[in-house]
C-alpha cells in the first residue's frame, strides 16, 4: 500500500474514533470559489518593500471625531504624569502622545506560539491635526516579510506604544514573527502603556469583564454595528485563504480599526477619571477604585478623600466594610488616629457579625499609642466575649495578660 | 562486618531449609582509573579534586575523549558508576570556555530532573563562575520562566515539556537555541515502544529548530543495561553513536540469591505470602543494621510492607522512622527528605515501587530485596544494582510470589542468569506518530520543499495535511493554518498526567498529602478505601471526581483494602476482515472498559478477607483499535476434530498460550514494546460468538499496531509457530507460551494445534 492510501486509512480510523468531535465541526458553510481581491473590497494601496508588495489601508480622523462619548483629540490634554501613574511605570512620564503608536493585531490564533501568525496590524498615530490609522495586511503567508518590513518603517518613528493586553499578547507575538522572518523589530524597548491593567484596577469590580469590547461599550459608550466577535477572526482569514474571497475580511478591518480608536479614547477617559473623578463618574465603585489606586501609591490624603466620597454612594454592605477598612488604615498611616478610631468603632457597631481587626487595632492604639491600658483592656475583653476561634483567642489572651501586666 | 555475619546466617538457614533455589557469587572488581585529560579546564579539575574525585574511571575517560572529538556518545554502566560526570564534565568545560554555550538535559520524569539539579548545583556552586542551571517544567513558576530562557546555561527538563512548552515557543528561546552545544538524554532505555517513537520525533523537531538557529548540538545519552543501547540512541537521535561500556568503577563482591517461599497449601499449590516472607527477612536485616532497599510490585504492597516493618520496629522499641516508603504520588519534599535520609544513613530501610529503580541518587545500599520478579531481566539487574558498596559485600535477594512467571524464574535461575537483557524497540516512522509530529513541526516552522522528516516521503504527508485543511501551501512552503495548538492534542505517554490530590481533613484544615494519577483512582482512592501513606492509614470518605480531589481522614484499622477490577473489550466497528483457513481475522475500533465494582477488606498479617465494599465509580474507558483472530463459524466441528486428534488439546489453555506467544512476537514485527499492546483471550467472545484472541493498542485512539497486525497476520502466526517449535522447553516457559502454572500442561501443544489450523 502506498503512503497516501495509508494516510487516508489512518484518517478514516481517526474519524471513526472522533466521530462526535467531528460531527460538530462539519457544519461549515459550503465553499463557493469566486476570487474577490482585497483591493476590490477595501480601498487601499500597495507599497513595495525589499520583500515584495504589502497591502495598506489608511483612514484619517479629524479634530471633531468622536469615539462613543469621547472626542478623539481630547487625549492631547492628558498629562504624562497621569498616564505614568495609571500604568505604574515611571518611564511613561516621558511619553509624548505625538510620538506614540496605538497598536492592535489580528492573528490566526489566540494561543500564541511559533505557528500563530499576524495577518493584520492596525497602527494609529497623530499627525498634525489628524489621527491616522494604517492597517497592514498580508494577502497570504508569503507576504509576511513584506508586511513586517513595511510595518518596521512606520514603527521606527515612535518611542511609545499603547495596546490592550499587548504586554502578554501582541508585542511578544510581533517579536516572535520578526525572529521567524529573520528580521529585527525597529520598535525596541518602547515605553509601553498597556491599558488592560489600569482598566482592571478601575473597573474590575463594576464590569462583567475587562475585555476591550466590554470596557468600550460600558465606559466609552461605543456601539459597534455588524461587528465580528474576536474568536471568529482566525476562521474568517482561513476561509479567505482557501476561497480567495476577501469580502468577509472587511468586517475584520473595521473591527481592528475600531479597536485602535477605542484605545485612544480610553486613554483620555482614564486620565480624566483619575484626574477629576468626582466630575467624571457617577459610580461609587469607580471612586472606590480610584481611592484604592492612590492607596497603593501611598498617597493617603487622596485615598482617604475618595474613600469618603465613595462612602456617600449607596454601596453594598460588603464593599462599604471594605472601604471602611482601607480608609482606617490609610488614616492610621497618616497618623490621623482619631479618624481611624472613629471608623473602627463604627465598624464594630454596624457589623452584626464579628470582625476581628477593629478590636485588634483599637487595642493596639490604646495600648501602644495612648497608653491607656484600661481602655485597651476593655476592648480586648469585649473581643474575647465574641470570638470563638481558638487561635484568635490565644492571641487575645496573650495581649490581655500583657496589658494587665503593664497596669500593675 | 554485619553483611558477612548475615551471609553466614543465611548459609546456615539455607542448609536447613533449602529454600534458596540459587546463590550466585559475583566477585569483587577493582577500579580502573585514568588521569584527567590535559584539556579539561583547571578550575573544573580543582573543584572535582576538592570533592574527592582525583581521577576518572576508565569509562569516564573514554567518554570524555569521544565527546571531545565531536562524537555522540551513549554510556552504559551500572548504577552509581559516575555516569553523570560523563556529561556534566564536558558540558561545564564548554561553558567555562565560552559563557554563551548552552546545554539541554532531558530526564524522563520531573522527579529525576529535580534530583539531577541538586548534584549539578553542588559542582556549579563550588566552581563559583556564575553558571546558571535551572529546571524548566510544569512546576516552574511563570515569573521565573523568562530568566531561565534568557540566562540558563543548563536547562533541565523532560520530553513532555520540550514537546509542549519549549519547541512551540522556540522564538522565546532564541538565545538558547543559537548557542546550544549539548543535548543530554539520561535514562535513554526508558524510551521504548510508543514513548520512544514519540521522543525520536520530538528530537527530530528539536534538531530542525536548531538548524533554523544555526546550531548543531552534540548528543550524550546514558542508559541502564539493555541489549541495544547504541541502536536505540541512534534511532532516537537519528545520528551515529559511539558506545562506551568499559566500566572502570570498583565493585565490592555481591551475592545474588533466589528464594522461593514454602508451600503452605499443597492441594492448591499456594505458597507463603511474598510480603510476609520479605518482611520477616528484612526485620532480620534491620536487627543487624544493614541498610536495605525493598522493591515491591505495586503501590499497595509497598505500603503494606512499610506498615509491617514499622510495626516490627515499634515492637522492638526502635524508631519507626528508620524505615520509609517511597513511591510515585508522594509530594516532592517528602521524597527529597527520604532520599537525603538514605544518603545520610539515617534511614535503614526503604520500601519502594520501581520509582527508585531509575537514577535517583540515594547512594549505595547493603542489601536489596525484590518482593516478586520485576518482570524483565533488565529491571531485575537495575534493581539489584541498588545494593552494592564499593569495598564491602552486598546482597540481592529475589523472593518469588506464587505468580507463574515468578515461579518459573525462581526455579530456572539459569534462564535468568544466562539470558541477555531485553532490547528496546522503537519505530520513529510509525505513521500515526510521525504524522502527529509533522503537524507539530509545521506549527513550529513552515516546511519547505526538499526538507526531510523521517523516512517517509514528507511531501505526501504535507499534501495530505493540506487536504485536511491544517496546512496552507504558498510558493512551495507549507504554513500552519489552524487555531488549534497541535502539541496539546498529542500526549507522549499513554497514561494521562491528570492528577487527583488526596487531602487530609483530620484537623479540619485541608492538607494535601499525596497525588494519584487518574488511572489509579479506581484501585486506590475510591470511597471506602484505606489509603496507605508511609504506613499511616487514611480512610477516603469522599471522592470529588469532577474536581479530582479525595478527602481522607486518619484512621487506625486492622485491615487494608484491595479493589477488584474487570477489563472488558467491546467491538464498535469492523474496519476490515478476512476469512481464511478456518479462521476469521479482523481489525477495528474497540472500547476497553476497566471497571472496579467492589473491594475486599484484607486483615493485616493474616491476609484473610474480612469484608467487602461496593465501589461506584464511572468506568475508565479507552477507545482504541484491536486486531482479533477468531475460530471460524464451524468452530465446533473444528474443535471436535482437534480434540479427537489427541488427548493434548485444551481450548482455553491453547488460546491463552497463543495470546502469550503473540504478545512476545508482535512487538518485533509492529516495532513496539510489549507494554504497548495487550491481549485478551475469550473462549466464547460475545462479539464473534467464537473462541477469540484480541490484541489491542494500549493507547487512546490507537497508534496503528492493529492495522499492521492485520496486514502481517500470516507472518505473525508463522513466527509464533516457529518460536514455539524452536523453544527448548518441554511444556512451556515465559519465552514462548508462558509458564505451565499459567497455561497448563496442554498449553504449548494446544497452541500449536490452533496455529496448524490457522496456517493450513
Provide a descriptive summary of the structure in words:
The complex is a heterodimer of chains A (408) and B (760). Chain A has 408 residues and is of the alpha+beta class. Chain A is built from 18 helices and nine strands. Chain A has helices at 3-17, 19-25, 38-41, 80-87, 144-155, 166-180, 196-203, 212-220, 233-243, 249-275, 277-280, 284-296, 300-311, 317-334, 337-350, 356-370, 373-386, 390-407; strands at residues 45-49, 52-62, 66-67, 70-71, 100-107, 118-127, 130-137, 160-163, 191-194. The longest helix of chain A is centred in the middle third of the chain and has 27 residues, at 249-275. Chain A is elongated and about 95 Å long. Chain A starts with a helix and ends with a helix. In chain B, the strands form seven sheets. A seven-stranded mixed sheet of chain B has the order 1-11-18-17-14-16-15, with helices on both faces. In chain B, helix 21 (651-670) packs across helix 23 and helix 23 runs antiparallel to helix 25. Chain B is globular. The N and C termini of chain B lie far apart (65 Å). The A-B interface holds A 3-4, 6-14, 16-17, 108-115, 117, 140-142, 172, 175-176, 179-180, 234-235, 238, 241-242 and B 168-172, 174, 431-432, 435, 442-446, 456-457, 460-461, 464, 468-469, 472, 474-475, 477, 479-486, 573, 575, 589, 623, 625, 701-702, 704, 707.
User: What gap, in angstroms, lies between the N and C termini of chain B?
Assistant: 65 Å
What would you report as the Rg of chain B, rounded to the nearest angstrom? 27 Å
Count the beta strands of chain A: 9
Class derived from helix and strand content of chain B: alpha/beta
Structural class of chain A: alpha+beta
The oligomeric state of the chains shown is: heterodimer
Strand order of the largest sheet of chain A: 1-2-7-6-5-8-9
CA radius of gyration of chain A is: 29 Å
Secondary-structure element pattern of chain A, one letter each? HHHEEEEHEEEHEHEHHHHHHHHHHHH
How many helical elements of chain A? Answer: 18
In round numbers, the mean pLDDT of chain B is 89
Tertiary shape of chain A:
elongated
Could you describe the largest sheet of chain B, including whether it forms a barrel?
Answer: 7 strands, mixed
Globally, the shape of chain B reads: globular
Biggest beta-sheet profile of chain A: 7 strands, mixed
Proportion of beta-strand residues of chain B: 25-35%
Please estimate the helix content of chain B. Answer: 25-40%
